[in-house]
Protein 1
Amino acid sequence: MPFQRIVVINGPNLNMLGKREPGIYGARTLADIEAALRAQAADRVALTFRQSNSEGELVTWLQEAGLAGDGVILNAGAYTHTSIALADAIKAGGARVVEVHLSNVHAREAFRHHSYLSPVAVGVIAGFGDRSYHLALEALLTLPENPKS
Ligand code: DQA
């Protein structure tokens, strides 16, 4: 596993989880998800958990994670579908990112079908509710040191 640390970065409106459209996004809060991820990470890897509604802050965190060599689990919310700046930040810092979504964005409105982030992500996990984050963590924890191996 190539990471000392994994940073979980959540974008706009994900602070509202639990209250926000629970039929789509589930009943768990972001704090619930953080606690469950910390239990999963246990002593296998250090975990940092962040959320912002501001695109610029997300850009800075993605740059920093890349430069530090940290793995990233990223749910960029609606910025997934709009933000060239986030894609550029991933490329600029060289972060290895798993893009996650609680909902299956491909089964929803057409404007959610395109992601600026998928082309610069290691992989994408969508549609498994809060389990999307756990699957992403497992994917990063089992990523080969040498991505080509
Ligand atoms: C989301 C899907 C996005 O389309 C939406 O804007 C979100 C959440 C998800 O986790 O399913 O805010 O990223």
Protein 2
Amino acid sequence: MIKRFFIGAFCAASLLSCTQKAPEAEVTLKDYFGDKFLIGVAVNVDQSWERDTLGAAIVKKHFNSVVAENCMKSEEIHPTPFTWNWGDADQFVKFGEENGMTVIGHCLIWHSQCSPWFFTDENGKQVSAEVLKARMRDHITAILTRYRGRIKGYDVVNEAILDDGSYRNSKFYEILGEEFIPWAFKCAHEADPDAELYYNDYSMALPGKREGVVKLVKSLKAQGLRIDAVGMQSHMGMEHPDFVEYEKTIQALIDAGVEVAITELDMDAIPTVSFGASVEDEAAYSAQMNPYPEALPDSVSQIWNDRMKQVFSIYEKYQDHICRVTVWGVQDGDSWKNDWPMKGRTNYPLLFDRNYEMKPFLKDIINKK
Ligand code: G3I
């Protein structure tokens, strides 16, 4: 009797399971974008050390590339001539490797967050061109030697060209002129000949910036230097960039013979205070510019989602030439744009919201709606 009961129960369960539709396996971002381009994210130290367990879980589930938001910048990793803080950078690389991700190094030479000792000697006097070149070489060589074969590519120089295409008058430029950029690329290639090398900048849809960066790419190539891609940071807002100009830049870079990396994607959902992404920009708090401190109204969210859907359609259009799309943070609460250039705002610029929920436009894309 008992045997008959169990056989009956087994058949009933099997019948039920056949009629019940198995829940659809969730499509992840790296599943969907995998054969188009790398889908990456900037991680902070809480995520790479997995103290932010929810953020780390999203990174591991959805992304196949990671970049360090801050821990590899010179002021963090090399704060004095004789001090190296390798801990966070080592953990960042380990986190990426352990999770089978492409690891990107950001950034070797940048006027901002740069350790002041690069430019002054022990007496506080400005160093010579030769001394600065030696310090740049030592900084770059130490990092690329340590992570040789583990970091796929580096933002070698960050934000050296202004919106009108001229050179930013940074200390690097003041002491070395235009030469600091080819020098940085030369040092990087010698330190790790297999590493990909990138130039990275924001506001790349502006015609002047586009022409300046294309000119730089051609100059580096003419000197026989390796440059694999240009990073279009892509810090966007609800009114910028003009997508026609944005696509012109993508095409101009393709024509210049480099790949395009989308390196720091985010999009303000609240009014843009500063265009570009100059960390030096600051603005006094104004409640008027922080209209949605509690939650984004559906009407605004719809506009933001529609605009982001347009952005990703551009990326899919140029997928043969876009090597990577990286977003600048995991969820809205992580974004630098909550405090830049105005501290204390609530912004909604990333692919996941504060509940770690994927934004609707992205669900539509990966579920092909
Ligand atoms: O880690 C310290 C912490 O110990 C201290 O208590 C706190 C108090 O101010 O500061 C913390 O450091 C901050 C760091 O982010 C980590 O949160 C720095 O002050 C702050 O300046 C730094 O901001 C970063 C900014 O670059 C400047 O490095 C942003 O997180 C980062 O998103 C932003 O990223 C840049 C890219 O590297 C280059 N492109 C533009 C982009 C946006 O500015």
